[in-house]
UniProtKB/TrEMBL annotation:
It comes from Cytobacillus spartinae. Coiled coil: none annotated. Gene3D superfamilies: Acetylglutamate kinase-like (3.40.1160.10), PUA domain (2.30.130.10). This is Glutamate 5-kinase. The gene is proB. It catalyses: L-glutamate + ATP = L-glutamyl 5-phosphate + ADP.
């Protein structure tokens, strides 16, 4: 292992199959192995956040279910049991090495509300500065489907962006991204380096590879997109391989590394929140001239450039900005409520310097190289 003098802030996502036995219960052996590697990273000076799946998988048998439950109430009940079991095990393992673990349970609404988003960021930063190992999971016990992240791959990428991580490591039951499904194509090749998520790569993404997990390859590609848009290198590889976490941090592990070829991406926290977490409340359709001004000349959007206003939103809301052909240009924080915009549109002698969207709070589709708002 080649020494790396740079201390990294690392987010590690651990899938359900990486934590549980074939019977669906917590595997002490698997957890010990992963915890030991996290400890090596901590001892080397790296900051580590663990995004851990496995709550439902760890709890459903103790709920009395023979198989992983299908109904939402049973899943939530199983998660309430399993989350406690996971944290108890994590805490004991890390304490045995002199490290304290903390629990952070998050819902999508914690990210969609800007103040709560900042609070989560501040909490995580304090924990990391004090040497604590945060264990993050979605709050499955109370989350309903329309407010879910969908899977912990997406959650881990958003957490990585939230804390300005240097690297995201996604461990699962697969070696990495292949150019075809290796379970069906014997000549499928592992893609060791990916610098751009192309339509061909997305087409190669398959379904879930585990009976106890919720995320498949598509969710991991989406997570890599989010991380790459924030300038964060992502590694995807198989758990259970000796020293996989340590080697991944030093970019020597077998798997796929997703990273941009340049370091030109520099989204601040405001733009990260707008792009990935805000949830647009309305839509503004703009003309071609206005589109050119904000995309190519980096000017602010003026009221006279607005063709249509859709939805209902208040001052300070995040809105979707599209052109007259329906193509999404980006997301922005609007300076006026919908009713004010409509009133100004109807005013004949409106001043040309009346601005609808602050350009510094506008995230262009091209800036992040993916449909903003993912």
């Amino acid at each position: 292992m080649t020494p790396d003098l740079k201390k990294k802030r690392v987010v590690i996502k651990i899938g359900s199959s990486s934590l549980t036995s074939r019977h669906g219960e917590i595997s002490r052996r698997k957890l010990e192995k992963l915890a030991d590697e996290v400890v090596v990273l901590k001892d080397s000076g790296h900051e580590v956040v663990v995004v851990s799946s496995g709550a439902v998988a760890a709890g459903y048998r103790k709920l009395g279910c023979l198989n992983r439950p299908d109904t939402l109430p049973e899943k939530q009940a199983a998660a309430s049991i399993g989350q406690g079991l996971l944290m108890e095990t994590y805490s004991k393992l890390f304490l045995s090495h002199g490290y304290v673990a903390s629990q952070i349970l998050i819902t999508r609404s914690d990210f969609s509300d800007e103040n709560r988003y900042k609070n989560v960021r501040n909490t995580l930063n304090v924990l990391l500065q004090r040497g604590i190992i945060p264990i993050v999971n979605e709050n499955d016990t109370v989350t309903i489907d329309r407010l879910k992240f969908g899977d912990n791959d997406t959650l881990s990428a958003k957490v990585a962006g939230l804390i300005d991580a240097d690297q995201l490591i996604i461990l699962s039951d697969i070696d990495g991204l292949y150019n075809a499904d290796p379970r069906k194509e014997k000549d499928a090749k592992l893609l060791e380096q990916v610098h751009e998520i192309t339509p061909e790569i997305e087409a190669a993404a398959g379904g879930s590879g585990s009976a106890v997990g919720t995320g498949g390859m598509k969710s991991k590609i989406d997570a890599a997109k989010i991380a790459m848009a924030s300038g964060i290198t992502t590694f995807l590889g198989r758990s259970g391989v000796d020293n996989v976490l340590i080697d991944a941090v030093y970019e020597q592990a077998k798997g796929t590394y997703f990273k941009t070829e340049t370091n030109t991406i520099n989204l601040n926290q405001k733009k990260k929140w707008i792009a990935f977490n805000s949830g647009p409340e309305g839509e503004v359709v703009i003309g071609n001239h206005a589109k050119d001004l904000i995309m190519n000349k980096k000017q602010s959007l003026q009221v006279k450039g607005i063709e249509k206003v859709k939805g209902d939103f208040k001052k300070g809301a995040v809105i979707r900005i599209t052109d007259v052909y329906g193509e999404e240009i980006g997301l922005g924080m609007v300076k006026y409520a919908k009713k004010d915009l409509l009133e100004m549109k109807e005013t004949k002698d409106i001043s040309v310097d009346q601005i609808a969207v602050h350009i510094e709070d506008f995230v262009c589709h091209l800036e992040v190289s993916l449909p903003v708002g993912i």
